[in-house]
Design goal:
This protein is mainly α. It has a domain of about 200 residues. It has 27 helices and no strands. Helix 21 crosses helix 23. The longest helix is centred in the last third of the chain and has 29 residues. This is Zn(2)-C6 fungal-type domain-containing protein. GO terms for molecular function: DNA-binding transcription factor activity, RNA polymerase II-specific; transcription cis-regulatory region binding; zinc ion binding. It is found in: Nucleus. Keywords: DNA-binding, Nucleus, Transcription, Transcription regulation.
């Protein structure tokens, strides 16, 4: 086989004098090395080579540098808010480049988002596993999965965990929140991706929204956005095996589907079923607060709960089942009180008089005993809090009836018994809450924080009741609400000091320090501290003026009604009729 002939020497470009004279530029071989053409040699002038500035640049695939644009904005620490358009563009380019990085198995892992270091990211991931998952076991991360691996496999879940578990100043968290939601909106609504990563991250953000400055209206938006996305993923429909189980109990959630459509429904993975259960719990809490019905099918929830409990895939599976069972008991109570649009004061109270209250309490006591026996170490206190909170909700109709004698509901001896049972449940709830470590407040999810707010408000109402046979002064000796609220405020102050120390240690991992402005910013517990203080001041003011109206009114309040609210509907403090039992606005918030 003949050898390949060597390529001819590359022809030199015309020199500058020949180009200007538009003359032919030729080079002898012996003069090529010193770049001297024949024309310049004969004319005895300097032969100057051309520069490459005017040449056409070769076509190259530009490496996009927008992968870290969004995180650099977050890490800059600037206090000004960027326009929403820039957030969306950055989120879009970031989402596209994230997918490009994921598609290259040998690509070097980039820096984590939000200006964090990998040591900080791993610390936040460890804190999420050890502290946060305990309070919301529906989204878990494997122990052997590093922060780098999670970022490559589930980029949005990684961002959500960094958002809720990183101890950072308020300004940094607010920017992280905006960028995280913009990233979510781009991937979910613009790119229309269908991946469990987005639903898992959304649940994490919604469950700890109170720690990253997301208000209740936005939590509702996120929850129902998650519901729509779960429908899109198909996990709200029963698989063929699940529909057979449900049809045997005559509660099939796919009764409207044909046999062919049932066969096309795929079997859901355990992670998908866990996400559905977590979404059910969040929607239940929001629905109860807003006097709505939970839109998810209870039959499908039972099947998913049974599948996870029998699989025993993770250590948190038994706890997850008990979480859902307590939420189901709360849903059962709402059904017993009647549909929200047809509720009156007499309807929920009749639920107690007809003996349903005794049966419900017996079932609740049985569930609490099973839950604490199967998991006595890590979740015992939390399940006891759920138990006491549900008891308080059970006897809430008695508080409403006693507080509104003008509604025409005749008092009975049983009413006083219900009021005493409610008082005992409230006192036990506060004892459990105050016996827990103060730093647990930062790790509690939406389930526990909303329960605490409800019990605090209902306790204030119960201790101001003036009903026949009820002794409010004796009740206040049993439960000194001013002292309890003062202890909660003290807990919050300890947590704020603990959080400041954690922020300094977290910044030191990246060789950073907190500025004076960042140290002076409000913590994530600022809103809770304000609500507790306002409730305490309102309660003490009412005790000083016993003859004043016991129920707060929006008149004379510094805050006006919200858009679309009727002021008449805001004068009552009743969780059964509206969401005021969780609402601190009548107290000045």
């Amino acid at each position: 086989m003949a050898e390949r002939s060597s390529s001819p020497p590359r022809r030199l470009r015309s020199c500058v004098p020949c180009v200007k004279a538009k003359a032919r530029c030729r080079f002898q071989q012996e003069n090529a090395a010193r770049h001297l053409c024949d024309r310049c040699l004969s004319m005895k002038i300097e032969c100057v080579p051309q520069t490459t500035r005017s040449l056409r640049k070769p076509r190259r695939v530009k490496m996009s540098n927008s992968l870290t644009t969004l995180e650099q904005n977050t890490a800059s620490g600037a206090h000004e808010n960027n326009g929403i358009g820039s957030h969306e563009r950055d989120a879009g380019s970031l989402a596209k480049n994230t997918k490009q990085v994921d598609s290259q198995p040998n690509a070097q892992t980039p820096q984590p988002p939000f200006g964090l270091s990998w040591s900080q990211a791993n610390l936040a991931l460890t804190a999420f596993r050890q502290n946060h998952t305990l309070h919301f076991p529906f989204v878990t991360v494997k122990e052997d999965l590093t922060a780098e691996d999670l970022y490559r496999e589930k980029p949005f879940l990684f961002r959500a965990i960094m958002l809720v578990a990183s101890p950072l100043p308020r300004s940094r968290v607010v920017k992280m929140k905006r960028n995280t939601l913009a990233y979510l909106g781009y991937r979910m609504l613009v790119e229309e991706e269908k991946t469990l990563d987005l639903l898992q991250g959304l649940l994490v953000v919604a469950a700890w929204a109170h720690t990253c400055y997301i208000d209740e209206g936005q939590v509702t938006n996120l929850a129902f956005l998650g519901l729509g996305y779960a429908h899109k993923l198909g996990i709200t429909q029963m698989s063929s095996s699940s529909s057979e189980q449900a049809s045997s109990a005559n509660h099939s959630g796919t009764s409207g589907l044909t046999e062919k459509m049932r066969q096309e429904v795929k079997t859901h993975s355990l992670d998908e079923q866990r996400c559905l259960l977590g979404l059910y719990c969040i929607l239940s809490i929001i629905s109860i607060k807003q006097s709505r019905s939970n839109p998810l099918d209870a039959a499908h929830i039972d099947i998913c709960c049974n599948n996870i409990s029998t699989s025993q895939s993770t250590a948190s599976s038994p706890a997850l089942e008990h979480f859902v069972r307590f939420i189901e008991m709360s849903e059962r109570l709402s059904e017993g009180f009647g549909e929200p649009h047809e509720r009156t004061l007499s309807r929920p109270y009749a639920f107690l008089l007809e003996g349903n209250g005794r049966r419900f309490r017996a079932d609740l006591e049985r569930l609490a005993e099973v839950a604490t026996r199967n998991d006595p170490a890590s979740h015992d206190q939390m399940f006891q809090l759920y138990h006491k909170y549900t008891l308080v909700r059970l006897y809430e109709p008695a508080v409403m009836v006693a507080d509104h004698p003008d509604e025409g509901v005749a008092p009975f001896v049983y009413l006083l018994i219900c009021l005493r049972n409610c008082l005992d449940a409230i006192r036990s709830f506060f004892d459990l809450l105050l016996s827990s470590p103060p730093e647990d407040i930062l790790n509690r999810s939406i389930t526990t924080t909303d329960q605490a707010a409800f019990v605090m408000v209902l306790a204030a109402r119960l201790l101001l009741i003036d009903a026949p046979g009820w002794e409010p002064e004796a009740a206040r000796r049993v439960l000194d609400l001013s002292v309890v609220l003062g202890k909660i405020q003290s807990h919050i102050e300890k947590v704020e000091a603990h959080h400041m120390k954690a922020m300094q240690e977290f910044a030191a991992l990246a060789g950073d320090t907190l500025s004076e402005e960042e140290m002076a910013e409000d913590s994530t517990l600022g809103e809770l501290a304000t609500k507790t203080r306002l409730l305490k001041e309102w309660f003490e003011t009412k005790l000083e003026g016993e003859h004043a109206d016991k129920m707060p009114s929006m008149k004379g309040n510094s805050m006006g009604t919200r858009d679309g609210e009727n002021e008449v509907g805001m004068t009552r403090l009743g969780g059964l009729l509206n969401d005021i039992a969780w609402n601190f606005r009548p107290f000045g918030w």
